Amino acid sequence: MANWEYRTLMYLPHGTKGVGCGWSVVGEWGEDPKRVGDTAKPRFIGKVWQAAKLLETALVELDLDGWELVSTSYSGTIGFYGLAVLRRAVTGHSTDPSS
Q1: Sheet holding 81-89, edge to edge
Q2: Most confident of 11-15, 46-50, 58-62, 73-77
Q3: Is 58 within 8 Å of 37 (Cβ atoms)?
Q4: Contact 27, 33 (CB under 8 A)
Q5: Which of 4, 21, 41, 82 is 20 to 30 Å from the Cα of 56, by its Cα?
Q6: Is residue 89 within 8 Å of residue 68, measured between CB atoms?
Q7: Cβ neighbourhood burial of 45 (10 Å; 0-12, 13-18, 19+)
Q8: In 3-state terms, what secondary structure has residue 86?
Q9: pLDDT number for residue 20
């Protein structure tokens, strides 16, 4: 039995004009990503700084469910994107919201 459950976040521009960029939880194949944390107007200079600042707001939100940051990666100049891997302990964690 696995000790950890993993989740992937992606940093990218959100589709709706004016919404900006931010982090989204990558779900199962074909499932729409769930946006977490704050969003901001995309920057041309300081993209990594902006992505890290917005990741902090996403982690505050996800920490309430026991998720912790494992690693991050950023890439690209024009088509800038980021990935973050989160984990939480499987044992002792209930996925039932009524408990």
Answers
A1: 34-40, 21-26, 4-13, 81-89, 68-75
A2: 58-62
A3: yes
A4: yes
A5: 4
A6: no
A7: exposed
A8: strand
A9: 79
pLDDT digits (tens, 9 = 90+) for 41-63: 877 777 888 899 999 999 999 99
Q: Which two tokens stand for residue 7?
A: 């989740």
The model's confidence at residue 68, banded by pLDDT at 50, 70 and 90, is: very high
16: pLDDT strictly greater than 70 = no
CA distance linking residue 92 with residue 94, whole number of Å? 7
| Helix, strand, coil % in the chain, rounded to nearest 5 | 15, 40, 40
DSSP lists the bridge partners of residue 9 as 25, 84
First to last CA, the chain: 23
CA atoms within 13 A on the CB side of 26: 13
Query: 78 to each of 9, 30, 55, 62, 75, how far by Cα in Å?
Result: 20, 26, 20, 29, 10
